[in-house]
Specification:
The protein is an all-alpha fold and 87 residues long. The protein has one domain. 62% of the residues lie in helices and 0% in strands. The protein is built from 3 helices and no strands. The radius of gyration is 20 Å and the shape is elongated.
Length: 87
């Protein structure tokens, strides 16, 4: 029954769908969002990572929270770029 169903080609197949050309950008958005949310929910678990990344300065919870909010903001900006197709 389903073998007889045929799909008709109507226009651009990637219309409204993110193509595989922007896979790297999709992964960057996901990583930024994951680290941003993790920094807001579990700042004490990310503190050793920020101690290494911010070497000359000590990482405090205020800096971790600010970096987490900035990572979420960056992921939103990149997601909008993905949706609009700006290169």
């Amino acid at each position: 029954m389903y073998a007889s169903v045929r799909f008709q080609y109507r226009g651009n197949p990637t219309n409204g769908i993110v193509s595989m050309n922007s896979l790297e950008l999709c992964l960057i958005v996901q990583v930024c969002l994951a680290f941003g949310v993790a920094g807001l929910f579990w700042p004490d678990k990310l503190r050793p990572l920020f101690d290494v990344l911010m070497f000359p300065w000590a990482a405090n919870y205020r800096a971790i929270r600010a970096n987490s909010i900035a990572a979420i903001g960056l992921s939103l900006v990149l997601f909008v770029r993905l949706l609009t197709g700006i290169s």
